Amino acid sequence: MMKYAAKIKNPLRRKLLAWYRHHQRSLPWRNTNDPYCIWISEIMLQQTRVDTVIPYYERFIKSFPDVRTLANAPVQDVLKIWENLGYYSRARNIHAASRIITDRCGGRIPDKSEEIKTLPGIGDYTAGAILSIAYGLAVPAVDGNVRRILCRLFAIRKSVDDPRGQKKLRDLAAALVPSRHAGDFNQALMDLGATICRVKKPDCLICPVGSICRVRLSGLQESIPVTRKNPAIPRKQGAAAVIFDASHRLLIVQRPSSGLLASLWKLPGGFVHDGKSIKKCLRDCVREELNISIAAGSCLASADHTYTHFRLTLQAFDCRLMKGNPEARTCQNWRWATTSQLEKLPMSKIDRKILAEVASSSPLS
Fold it and tell me: What pLDDT was estimated at residue 43?
């Protein structure tokens, strides 16, 4: 493969960069070479569509225009801006990294690979993207799009999910990156994968590098890259308690600082375990979270959501506080919240769906 890489690297660079000059996507983070903006965009783009990211990116940069502003902001403000973008660990990592950059690096994002990869949330791909686009360094940025293109260019029939195979792909990408215009080259590969060399039905007839693509020449575009079959996603059930006080404020809790949807706010409750009734699980979860006893009544709302590793059906029940005063035990915090207060707190999409249904049947104060 390295012999073929040496053979095609010059025509590949020439063809790809010429195509990119005329066909690159117009994206807000491409109007700058500010490492901060490029870093934020690359983190947001992980496992998220470009058209979804654009409004979030614009709001984020408006709210936190530089790394020091971000570092000085409460993490709750960062999570609120991130709300509904998903994969919230990205937001927490950005916030943590901004404080490290401010405290240890004088507010400047590192321009060396080993240093930048010590920051939370920055791995090989993100480091390569920042270093090549913002600093012009000749390093690869290998994401899913680029892996797919390389597998097709070189007709690689081994699974793209294999760690050893991914190491070989990074080595191939490193051999192809030019010393000049490395950032444009990497972005050209990203655009090619997003618009032409797609997962299904690649548009090979208009591909700028089709003449040097081994898969196109052999007609195997639909069968390469080879990927492992994903296992079936399990379904889980959750229960939430809708508890009002005398002023018709809603009892909510803040999730733990680690784990699923860490530090976001939600209704008290948790997962339903096999062999237990949903209401008993709800009572047990609320007792563990807040050290209170509740009585669970009728179901007020239900919502579905799919996460990376499971699907969740969440049901919310009309509940009464029977005994005890709330205290944070397995949650970070708790509070009685009005409608205006709920709107300012970061919450997950499924919790927002539940609250919308609850509000329609029993308006909050």
Answer: 97
